[in-house]
Amino acid sequence: MSYKTWYDKYVVDKNAVKGYNININLQLFSNKDLQKQTTKQIEKGIKSYRKQIHIHNDKINNPQKYVEDWDKMNKLNRDGLIRHWNKEINVFNKNINDNIEELKKRGVKID
């Protein structure tokens, strides 16, 4: 599934005029039950969040690579997507910090 197909299916407000309105609950990206996860799962989560941050930074720097009609979108919609990607980066960073704090509580040495 392409990013645009995913975006149109899961993110765009179906009641709005065709556009790139962001209606996504960022709680989908939150850490859940960290205390129940194994150390290995938490470390894998950190790696995954860092990978997503890298991808989202690339989306911000090269949006036309991810949104095929980027050049046809109006500035308001483009700015909205960039704000959305930045918010996701903030959530990923928070999750990384939460994961690191949980590992510290367990006495795991963090690099």
Write a brief caption for the model:
The chain has 111 residues and is mainly alpha-helical.
Number of helix segments?
Answer: 3
Strand content range: under 5%
What is the H/E string?
HHH
What share of residues is helical? 55-70%
Quote the distance from N terminus to C terminus.
35 Å
Q: How many β-strand runs?
A: 0
Q: What are the low-pLDDT stretches, counting only 5+ consecutive residues below 50?
A: 14-20
Structural class: mainly alpha
Main sheet overview: none
Q: Give the mean pLDDT.
A: 83
What would you note in describing this structure?
The chain is an all-alpha fold. The chain has a domain at 41-105. 56% of the residues lie in helices and 0% in strands. The chain has three helices and no strands. The chain has helices at 3-10, 39-61, 75-105. Helix 2 runs antiparallel to helix 3 (75-105). It is elongated and about 50 Å long. 10% of the residues are buried.
